[in-house]
Amino acid sequence: MSSSSSSGAAGAAPRQLHLNINALHAGFLPSAWRVPEADPKAFIDAQHYVKVARIAEAGTLDAIFLADNAAIIDQIDFRPITALEPTVLLATVAAATSHIGVIGTASTSYNEPFNIARRFATLDHVSGGRAGWNIVTTADLPSARNFGRDTVPDHAQRYQRAIEFTEVVKALWDSWEDDAFVGDKAAGRFVDLARVHPIRHQGEHFSVQGPLNLPRSPQGRPVLVQAGGSADGRELAARHAEAVFSASQSFEESLAYGRGLKARAEALGRGPDAVKVLAGLTTIIGSTEAEALRRRDELVDLIPWSYSLNRLAGTLGVPADRLKLDERLPSNLPLPNGGNGNHTFFNFVVALAQRHDYTVRQLIRALAGGGGHRVIVGTPEQIADDIEHWFRHGAADGFNLMPDVLPGGLQDFVDGVVPLLRQRGIFRKAYEGRTLRSHLGLERPAHLRDRRAAA
What stretch of H or E contains 119? Predict the structure, then answer.
């Protein structure tokens, strides 16, 4: 990837910025549901997500993304949680929109490949080719207990399962050739059975006969997304992901992460631009920087400090009483749960605290309530400047946006930041296609048998 310009190779179309909206119920900040215009029931209201998606589509964003959890892992006495199942909700969103991509999360730890392959192929069909699957492994004990387990599989084991899981899903998506469906009324010929193939997978974790019970989807297969920052997570992304959500806190970290990931993908026989790196970005926007800072502080001050301490302690894998608001983080913190926790957010939060020598209180405020993503507080111009700098100099192909409050914070971004990015020639003024692959500049993958024949 170019490290100095938004242009590609000579004669190639200029790189275009990619923007997703990460629709975290009421907004990224834990207090978002408490602002006057918010609906506390938005987290279980499909029309809330439809409204968010329509605002994003008006701004020609690439996709709406939904996270997911298999247990209650937040403090629900204070804030809303991820509650509605993503693919069901995204089918509703897709029916109410026409262009925006729909990316949902599903865990490889507590699902089966056939179910996930069928669910996301269905979403791709009903959306007309706009679906993406965010591949996650699940590391928390409450989720394990919801599936009859008393322990969480270790980190390496979870990712070994995830790699095989993804390979099986891709094989199932390719179990029908593109022209297997015939539908010839005159000849009475519905499907060409010679073009529908069992996958006959026998592996360490799964035994799956196949084929899938529906034709190949409009995109060939849904877009594969991943968000792991550990060595195992990067390996999964390099092998299979077409877009990666990163949590880099600095330009230098993101630049190194993207270069390493793309080099590994190329070493595995994929192209140098096979993976798009989309950095997580929380935006808090004001007409002046002072107004934006005041908005941030008002939202943070609506969060109980006990909540923020517990949230930060969970990210760091330490008891909350080890964190003192007006002291620095404890030194030499080990990875959470003996290395079996979330490496990504742990590493970035610790690095942020050390870089700025923050106290715990200052760290929580900088994280806008104790989360793990980079936060920009400022005017539309300041935010556009930051996005343009990261994009033009190769630190990211785009951003996974997490506005402070939804839908208001997204509307502020679409009204204030998007026009500036368009004026600077790095973001589309209109959709050029109708599929998520088109938005991301990804080719429709050839069928596995066609690829083998070409090889």
Answer: helix 113-127
- Which residue's entry shows tokens 């104790």? 370
Assign a CATH topology to domain 18-288+373-454: TIM Barrel (3.20.20)
Domain ranges of the chain: 18-288+373-454
- C-alpha 323/C-alpha 321 separation (Å) is 5
In tens, the pLDDT along 40-81 reads: 999 999 999 999 999 999 999 999 999 999 999 888 999 999
Q: How far apart are CA 34 and CA 43, in angstroms?
A: 13
How many other CB atoms are found less than 10 A from the CB of residue 81? 15
Mean pLDDT of the chain: 92
**Is there a contact between 131 and 220 (Cβ–Cβ < 8 Å)?**
no
Residues shown for the chain: 455
Any idea what the Cα angle at residue 184 is, between residues 179 and 188, rounded to 5°? 125
CA dist 455 and 449 (Å) reads 10
User: How far, rounded to the nearest angstrom, does the alpha carbon of residue 112 sit from its chain's CA centroid?
Assistant: 21
Single-letter amino acid code for the residue at 280:
G
157-179 per-position pLDDT tens digit: 999 999 999 999 999 999 999 99
Sort strands 207-208 and 201-202 into parallel, antiparallel or unpaired: antiparallel
- CB 22 within 8 Å of CB 280: yes
Q: Which pTM does this prediction carry? A: 0.91
Beta strands per DSSP E along 119-161: 131-136
Encoded amino acid at 288, one letter:
T
End-to-end CA distance of the chain: 26
What is the H or E stretch that residue 114 is in?
Answer: helix 113-127
> What span, in angstroms and rounded, lies between the C-alpha atoms of 282 and 24?
11
The 10 Å CB-count burial string (b at 16+, else e) for 240-263 is: bbbbbbbbbbebebbbebbeebbe
114-148 pLDDT tens trace: 999 999 999 999 999 999 999 999 988 999 999 99
> Tokens 């914070």 map to which residue?
409
Cβ neighbours, 10 Å, residue 432: 12
Q: What's 79's DSSP letter?
A: S
Give residues with Cβ within 8 angstroms of 86, minimum separation 6. Answer: 66, 67, 68, 104, 105, 106
DSSP annotation of 444 reads: P
Beta strands (DSSP E) in 108-231 are 131-136, 181-184, 189-191, 201-202, 207-208, 223-226
